[in-house]
Known about the structure:
Blueprint (H helix, E strand, L loop, with lengths): L10 E3 L4 E13 L2 E8 L13 E4 L28 E4 L1 E5 L2 E7 L6 H8 L5 E5 L3 E3 L7 E7 L3 H10 L6 E6 L4 H5 L11 E5 L3 H6 L7 E8 H14 L7 E7 L19
Parallel strand pairs: 10-11, 10-13, 11-12, 13-14
Antiparallel strand pairs: 1-9, 2-3, 2-8, 3-7, 4-5, 4-8, 6-7
The structure holds flavin-adenine dinucleotide.
Amino acid sequence: MTEPISLTRSHVRHELRQRRLNVxxxxxxxxxxxxxxxxxxxxxxxxxxxxxxxxVFFPDPATGRIATPGFHAGGLGLSAPGTVISRDxxxxxxxxxxLDLDMVLHGDAxxxxxWASRAAVGDPLVVAGPKTSKLVPDGLTALVLVADESAFPxxxxxxxxxxxxxxxxxxxxxxxxxxxxxxxxxGVTGAQRATIRAGxxxxxxxxxxxxDAGTVAFLAGEATMLVPLRRYLRxxxxxxxxxxxxxxxxxxxxxxxxHHAPIDADDPD
Length: 269
Ligand SMILES: Cc1cc2nc3c(=O)[nH]c(=O)nc-3n(C[C@H](O)[C@H](O)[C@H](O)COP(=O)(O)OP(=O)(O)OC[C@H]3O[C@@H](n4cnc5c(N)ncnc54)[C@H](O)[C@@H]3O)c2cc1C
């Protein structure tokens, strides 16, 4: 009899601090994703998990000031008054003294996207986190990643952090040409062992895929688009929660979505 696979994810906790940073470089990575490289108070910065994320605090366009909340126990060094404007972003990559955020430019409706589209060297930002790194699951034998552009940085983290022997299928959902989306993964460590496809119908692709007891599926992007994919995996295939990591990164028509809210109100985990 084969042993059940636990797929446990260890957690590493980090000191929660607000870090004052400045833009050091801006580079277009795909037609809709801009890479913002930040420098500044990055001493001790750590991000070890594939789904790590940061709270990013943006300047109030009316005042140009970045307001941040006061934090209680575990204490943060900085608290500034005004309207707090914050969104979640993935640490796309980091090196000593440098942090990259890869931000989707989806227009001026959102303060984060509006900021990113005008970002210039020297502009200030404040980031806090990651609070916790949830590591790649132990026992993982295969990885299926489904990501829209907002989750390309998270997919790249999975590629870098999953053991090299683990096969990966990566399905990309992006509005432009497939080549524009796959270009994001050029040069990403670990991408060589992955099958990367874009511009396909996600649900039929997922349904055609073999999924065994050691396969983990990570689904992230627009919350509504994830619902049928998650239902297929959780309800039809009956996979346990540790095999299906689904996270709504944004929801069409909703500003500042709380990603802790279930993506499927009829079937929360
Ligand atoms: C854990 C986590 C990690 C994330 N990592 C990243 C990341 O690395 N890079 C990244 O770009 N995003 C990432 N996101 C998504 C990002 O937080 C949201 O897209 C956020 O809404 C952007 O803020 P905004 O101010 O631009 O728009 P909001 O003010 O939040 O929304 C304004 C309008 O824009 C729409 N909208 C929001 N995001 C998008 C989008 N991506 N495409 C089209 N329309 C959109 C909303 O539906 C709303 O109608 C992440 C989210 C989470 C929860």
